[in-house]
Design brief:
2 copies of one chain form a homodimer. The first copy, chain A, is α+β, with helices and mostly antiparallel strands. In chain A, 44% of the residues lie in helices and 14% in strands. In chain A, strands 1-2-3-5-4 form a 5-stranded antiparallel beta sheet, covered by helices on one side.
Chain lengths: 333, 333
């Protein structure tokens, strides 16, 4: 009985949507991309189903949007990518079909084809990555300035208390005392959260696997996965990068790397004194945001599910570090 | 405690080996493939880690051989692919490094780069696939004739009784009475197994996801995944295809498709009267082989493991069908 239940669960829970030949052929007929030459599922990314698509016109990525993405928000994401690419940012560009539409349905899901970007995301972050990353992030913020779309950050400060509530029943089982610690921390972060910093279009999830590099010394050849992008404080995006890029494997904060990132960012888009002063609390907030979503996934993912759960406690360590950092200087600013 | 145990298990159990930038760079330096342009994990296949590799020289597949593959057998597999490709078969060709070697170590595992093959494997099998599949399988058998390597079939008749023993403790929990049914069936298959049929190099796992097609009407553009290849009865490979390609979604045997496959095979490599007469027992054996390996995986895969387990009972239905088929005619021959 247990085994039968597991079987049924796994059948429902496929990480990738399988696309039939007939559906793919009909879908591609909407585009002027020539003959299909290859079609392979990509193992990276857990939110959506991604396929590497090769046609006689070149290489593309086909994405099927899974249940975590609200279809109503796809026009914002695709519009933002189109805008950024038109401004010269190296990001996937949605390909329009003959009807002018980039978004259509495939295998029962919203789907889009985007251009392929060359490059490799860094499995090991080296000192040489910091400056090109900082410059690319600032370039993204500058390029986004003219985009009229607006999407509130569902995983911003207003979302953290409800998310914490949804983890409460099981959270202390992950680590004893965790809920009380997060309650106190969240209150402090919300109290100190800055109100009047510059806003714009932010990526909000600029982890190493979303940034492609090429050449030596490395240059950014592409920024991908805009499906957490939103309209929020620009400096919060910097704080996400301090979390995602500036800790060594032993969880020690790498202040040299952070300083290199911030200096390169500042050279393209100068940070105001207020933005700089807010970096510690913004970094605490970003650490809490990733801690909470990982914790939520952790306590809500059945052990038999075929998805990779990320360790929430990694972000508890980062959060505690940023709570001790009482100035921008302490974190490379 | 339960959660911590699951975490540790998942960390050990990564389906894909992650390759560091430095290791990849050093590895590629052994080849004359130009500049690295892209590197992405492929979601298909569970036995090994596969990466789509793009360099200025073209598209390639990098495979890291995981624990199911015995490193001592890799020279047979790579040598066979090299031989078949030299005979004109569309299969991955191992790329040799500057030292003349196709096999080296990467991230602690044996690894090889092979040429990329265009094409798409059929998610839905259509009548038009049967003839090109049959002709391609016969072409593989003919092309393999001159290859001197020899690898016994570890999953052939001699391997079935030991495999059944390793499933015995848990097998009846999957379906009551299953072990007794398989004991009786195995005895019958071994009693009837043919002794003097032509042998050669067989693929032994020619499922739809290992055959790429292009164009309309479809033609075979590539045969991949030779890591079950071995030296065994050629007609057994045909029997594997009868199992893997000739049942409809409702598990009804599609005798038209089987006849088309056999006719096209026969036109390239004529089946002897003895081979044809043996098809029913060979098909029973092939069904039992896939039933047993799936059953073994089923009862030995912890529910939390991040691998897709395939339903063993699909092959019980196929096995029962072939047990009722008492002549080659009944299965399209």
């Amino acid at each position: 009985m247990v085994k039968a239940a597991v079987l049924l669960y796994q059948r429902r829970m496929a990480v990738y949507t399988e696309v039939s030949d007939d559906a793919l052929r009909a879908f591609l007929a909407e585009y002027g991309l020539g003959e299909l030459q290859a079609f392979r599922g990509i193992a990276e990314g857990v939110e959506n189903s991604n396929y590497a698509l090769k046609t006689s016109a070149g290489d593309y990525i086909l994405t099927l949007y899974e249940r975590r993405v609200d279809p109503a928000e796809l026009p914002y994401f695709l519009g933002l990518m189109e805008h950024l690419a038109a401004q010269g940012l190296a990001c996937p560009t949605p390909v329009q079909g003959g009807d002018g539409e980039a978004l259509r349905m495939l295998a029962g899901r919203p789907a889009a084809i985007c251009t392929f970007l060359p490059g490799v995301w860094p499995r090991r972050i080296r000192p040489e990555h910091a400056a090109p990353l900082g410059a690319a992030l600032a370039g993204l913020h500058v390029a986004g300035a003219g985009f009229a779309g607006r999407r509130p950050n569902a995983l911003g400060p207003a979302g953290w208390a409800p998310l914490l509530e949804r983890c409460r029943a099981d959270g202390d089982a992950v680590q004893p005392g965790l809920m009380a610690e997060l309650d106190a921390t969240l209150a402090g972060i919300l109290r100190d959260w800055p109100q009047a910093l510059p806003e714009g279009q932010i990526h909000a999830d600029l982890f190493p696997d979303n940034v492609f590099f090429l050449d030596e010394p490395p240059r950014v050849s592409g920024i991908i996965d805009f499906y957490f992008a939103c309209t929020d404080l620009l400096a919060y995006d910097v704080a996400v990068c301090l979390n995602a890029w500036c800790f060594d494997a032993d969880y020690a904060f790498n202040v040299t790397r952070a300083a290199g990132l911030l200096r390169a960012y500042h050279a393209v888009r100068p940070l105001s004194a207020a933005e700089r002063a807010a970096l510690p609390v913004l970094a605490r907030g970003a650490a809490l945001r990733f801690l909470l979503t990982r914790l939520f996934d952790w306590v809500n993912t059945p052990p038999g599910a075929m998805v990779t759960r990320k360790d929430p406690l990694e972000y508890l360590r980062k959060l505690r570090f940023f709570l001790r950092a009482d100035s921008a200087e302490a974190i490379g600013g």
